[in-house]
Every structure is written in C-alpha cells, then in structure tokens.
Amino acid sequence: MQARRFELFLKDLSALTRRQRERLLGLLLPAVKLDQAVDLIEQSTPHRLACPRCGSDRFHRHGRANGLQRYRCRNCARTCNALTGTPLARLRHKGRWLDYLGSMLESHSIRRAAAQLGIAGATSFRWRHRFLSLSKNDRPQRLSGIAEADEMYVLESHKGSRTLERAPRKRGGKATKRGISHEQMCILVARDRSGQTLDWVPGKGPVTPAQLHEHLKGRLEPDVLLVTDAHAAYRAFAREAGISHEAVNLKAGTRVRGALHVQNVNAYHSRLRGWLLPFRGVASRYLGNYLGWRWALDGGRVKTPDALLQAALGVRRPALFHT
Ligand SMILES: [Zn+2]
User: Fold this and answer.
1) d(C-alpha 309, C-alpha 301), whole Å
2) How far is the CA of 82 from the centre of ligand 1 (A)?
3) CB 147 within 8 A of CB 226
4) What is the Cα–Cα distance from 117 to 245, expressed in whole angstroms?
5) Mean pLDDT value across residues 110-123
6) At what angle are helices 305-312 and 97-105 packed, to 10 degrees?
7) Rounded-to-integer distance, Cα 254 and Cα 298, Å
8) Ligand 1 centre from 39 Cα, in Å?
9) How many A from CA of 44 to the centre of ligand 1?
10) How far apart are CA 109 and CA 293, in angstroms?
11) What is the distance in A from the centroid of ligand 1 to the CA of 76?
12) pLDDT, position 175
C-alpha cells in the first residue's frame, strides 16, 4: 500500500466499532505471527544453504513461497528454502508454530494443544514429533567429573499402533509380571554434577553391559568417576571399559557415601516420571522424543518458543542452551 493511502487508512481506524476492531485484529495477528516465525527461521538458517540435489551453494533469489524466501540453484535450477532438508520442511500454518511451541513449553498433551490452537489432532501429533525430532539431539557431548547413571522402567506402550502383539491394556495399566520384565521399557539416565544429562531408551527389560557400552561409553570423559547402584551390569561395563566406578549399595541401605550417591539422577527420574503421568502412557517408539522434550524443559533450560523453534531447526545457540 502506498504511504499516503496507508496514512488515510490509519486515520479511518479511529472510526471503527469495537467489533470491527476485533475483526481487524483477527486478520492482522496471524499475519504478524507468521512474520515472526519466518524471521526466526530465516535468521536461524542463514549460510548453511546447500542445494538438496547437487550440493551447490550458489543460488539466485527466486521469489517467496509460503512466507519464506525461495532460492534457485544456479547449477541445477532446483529450488529450496531455509527449511529444506529439516524435519519442518513442508509443515503448514507457520503462523501458528510459535503458539504451538508455547503450548509445548507448558507440557500440554497433543489433544489439548490441538484444541487450544484450533488445529486437527493429527496435525498436532505431526507437529509435536517434527518439532522434537531434532530438538531431542540438543544434548551435551560428554559427561565429566562425577557422573551418576541409573535406569528406570516404564510399561511398554503400543499406543496409536494399528497392530497389537497382545490384548490391549487399559491406558496406563499394570504389568502382568512382577519385577523388571520384557513388558518394561528401560530408560537409562546419566547425569554429572554440573547437571548435564544424557538419556537413552536401550530397549525392553533390564539394562545389559552391551547396551551400556553402546550408549554410555563414548559419552563419558576418560577420567570420569561413574557412580551407580549395585546392578552387576554397571560393574561389568566399567571394568571392561576401563572407567573408574563406585557402586552404592541401595539394597543394603547405603544411600550416600560422601559424594558417592545417585540422588541427582534419581531426582531426574522422579521429575521425568511425574511429568510423563499426564500423557497417560507414551507410545514406546516416541519415548526418545519425550526424553528430549523433558531435557529441554528441565531446570528451565529452554524458556521461550523462539528457543524451542531454534532447537527444532537443529540450531545450537550456546547462550540459549546452557544449563
Ligand atoms: Zn543444485
């Protein structure tokens, strides 16, 4: 709109009725939110553009599509934008992303987020897991100093699956066997005293030394002191990996020997367990995504929808992701 016409338009605004103002705002707000989301996306992915077909980094600007600058490869003419190659490519309604990420910071269920934003449940589900697919990787590289490790178990859940290997259980439900069985998914958590936390879903049933090698080995500084409970798998793993290890014998009533305890990791377990409850049984194949989400929230590490969007784009901004 030309500047002069815009000034006239602004003058007319004062004559609007309350209902007209509301209608106008209803039209403008989504557009403003789209602008905010687009700005964030384009600032977050500035110079890493590479042609998805030929890998070239030489582009022409080629108009805009769905709010985003489109680029055309000088070499092969393929077009792409800042989201090409990310899990967020081709997701629609960018104007609502930041509100959706806000509802994730509030830990709302898929259904509740859908109702709040007026989107379909299937969309809410797709967005949730696309937003989490890279943010779950926003983890510390290695643990150092004293690192506690312990596992917790949650019932396996096929929620949302079309085929069930067994008779359906009521949501939540109880295991049919006592103790740790192959109905239970293991969640392994390791946390050092600076609060850096790593976790994995090694599989069903009790954790094994081989799983500890696979997940834990490369993520501990060589001079780390690993503190665990008396589970034999940790002892075997530490011996084979040449890692200093102290076991606290919880069964014998020893909870703390000076600095040697697993209370930080167990406190993390209990926050995680409490946080998972309202979701009423997370499908096992999505557990990893939920662990990443929990880590983003723990200790207020990711505080704003903007920061969560950057994590979802796989962009690390150290100032935003310190612990
Ligand atoms: Zn190309």
Assistant:
1) 14
2) 15
3) yes
4) 49
5) 95
6) 100
7) 28
8) 25
9) 22
10) 12
11) 4
12) 63
d(CA 311, CA 319): 12
The pTM of this model reads: 0.84
Query: From the centroid of its chain, how far is CA 9?
Result: 44
Give per-residue burial for 46-76: e unless 16+ CB within 10 Å, then b.
eeebbbeeeeeeebeeeeeeebbbbbbbeee
Q: How far apart are CA 81 and CA 70, in angstroms?
A: 5
E strands along the chain, which residues? 59-65, 68-73, 79-80, 146-155, 184-192, 197-204, 225-229, 244-248
Residue 316, pLDDT above cutoff 80: no
Give the closest residue to 321 by CA, choosing from 140, 98, 145, 104: 140
Q: Is 36 in contact with 64 (CB distance < 8 Å)?
A: no
Residue 147: φ, ψ to 5°: -120, 125
Closest by CA to 188, choosing from 197, 179, 200, 176, is 200
CB atoms within 10 A of CB 118: 7
Of 54, 130, 124, 117, nearest in space to 90 by CA: 130
Q: How far is the CA of 60 from the centre of ligand 1 (A)?
A: 11
Q: Give the tens place of pLDDT for each residue, 64-88.
A: 988 899 999 999 999 999 898 889 9
Using DSSP, state whether 201 is helix, strand or coil: strand
Length of the chain measured in residues: 323
**Contacts for 192 with CB less than 8 Å, ≥ 6 apart:** 143, 144, 145, 146, 147, 148, 224
The pLDDT score that the predictor gives to residue 321 is 40
Do residues 201 and 276 lie in contact, with contact meaning Cβ atoms separated by under 8 Å?
A: no
Distance CA 282, CA 284 (A): 6
